[in-house]
Amino acid sequence: MDTACVVSIWKVLPPSLSVALSLPSWYRDRRTLSDAAEHLMGKRPQQLFVLPIFNVLATVCLSEDDEFERHARAFWGPSALHFLPRIAKYIAFILLAVNARSLPFGWHFRVFYPALQLRAQLWLFRLSLIFHSRKQRRAALIKWVENLSPIGANPMDKMIVYKTWAALDDCDYNFHLSNSCYPKTLDSARLQAALSFFPAFLREGGWIALGGTHFNFMREIRILSPYEVRMNIASWDNKWFFLVVRFVTKPTQKSGTAKPAPSPAPISDKPAQATAQTPMDTPFPSLHTPASGTSTPLPRNVPASSPEAAAAMASVAAQLRGATEPDGAVVNCISVNECVFKHGRITVPPALVLAADGLCAEPGYSAAKPPPHWAEVHRLREAGAMRAFLRGGWRDVPEGERWWEQALAGLEQRRAANYALIRGVRDGLDGARGIVG
Prior knowledge:
Elements: H1 3-12, H2 33-43, H3 53-62, H4 66-76, H5 80-98, H6 106-128, H7 134-148, E1 160-165, H8 181-197, H9 199-203, E2 207-217, E3 226-236, E4 240-249, E5 253-254, E6 257-258, H10 309-319, E7 330-343, E8 346-348, H11 350-356, H12 374-382, H13 386-390, H14 403-407, H15 412-430, H16 433-436
Helix pairs in contact: 3-5, 6-8, 10-15
């Protein structure tokens, strides 16, 4: 399509149509665009303001129908139908291209693409073992799954990053990412985090249920801007584990220098240490911002499940102001996700799932040098007993001999401090039920 055609298309769309240009070469043997525009504007100019796009698309799809064409010619004029279908096709193509991510099954593809990719890799790996014995295939598959596990990683320091951008169909009329698109994006990010943190648990038939999601919006993510979703495990108890998510954007660069992100407090790369006198003020150790000394009490008719609920909520809200990441990225939104591990309908303790995928508290371990508890994990997998163990066999292990608790014992102080803060958010928000209850 030449330049004259593009200009002609844009000239015909606005109500205040100019009639200075003529049709391109493929239409010069008919009426000019200016004549057609004068005809349309002179005939029914008021209807050009309210004509919806689906009428234009209907003209394309049904122009071959004699009855419809007769009515269309009465409305548009006989000459307009010559160029309108071609213009409408271009408009339809542009609309589809702009909203491609929202087309049917677009969300499903984005969410399940990492799982489908991993499934394809597993299928190819199995295909390479077709001429091996059954015992060799089983040992190779166990080794393949174990290589996916983050063996030796600290569950509270390991961060999963999901990269995306604010597409046109994800933004609202204020030209920034719509609030409804944060949880939609988080669906894809959570599955990527699950495959990175717990591949062996998912391979054993486990799944993860979402119990609640809490958002705090601080800064806008502008239209067409790239952003990252950064996820850390903040804490856990005997049932729930809490995933802290940050939506961040990189500072814009002007004149070759990066614009500094506002930060009211220095950033430390070292994990924060919680003590009995000085509780940890952040739900994840890599982000440090000062907490306000003020407190916001809950309404009188809202029950709090713990005396610290209101203070914890106020502390979290104060920390979110002016927060930055260690690399200078600006935190635009923060989310706390409550999740639970399930095997069928049976709840699995988070500490067991973490340790079964090789996560541990002590540094210096890796796949080449696994932590001490990994021998027990490997023994259960080789014996084919891991599923039964996850489904309740762990209860038969005496409390003093539970290797999964021993593997994470070094994180107990940080876990408890983070849990007090994260649980305070949950308790405070759950207490809002008293307002309508």
